[in-house]
Task: structure prediction
Amino acid sequence: MPKLQKLLRSSFGYASVVSFAVSIALAPAFLRAPLPHATPRFHADPFSLLLIAMREVILVMPAVMAITTGLAWWALRKGLPSARMRVLAASISCLLMSMPFLVAGIAIVKYSLAGSVELAGVLVLFVTLVSVGTAGLVAFGKRNAPFAASVQPRVTNSMEGMGALASTL
Result:
């Protein structure tokens, strides 16, 4: 289990950096994207409304995921007591982020919007996010799960932590 936790720590670190970059790239689209309104071309069938909701989730979730995965990475790296809860939040955000990719894959197949390469890319993103989210829930889901704290040396004496300055004092 500690190997899975270390893998998740590095995965959350990378996910945080990538999600932050994606959220910066999506910021102009999020700020300019109006919500659909009643026009002759707008049809409020359930699948259309689901696609509208997924569009909003796709625009907002990278920022949420960047924050939650960054906090989980930091807590795991420092061995903080709040690491378990932060990892669970990051895992849930990964699972939530995977849902729009599943809906996009279904829309691609249903409406023939793209080819097989694009569909494969969307499904790879879906499977990756579901895998990271599920692994986080499995590794940290139990309250008494063994926690692989960071292995950083603790300074016990204030003179030991000063290094070369200790000899001058």
Notes: The chain is about 70% helix and 0% strand. The CA atoms of residues 68 and 90 lie 5 Å apart.
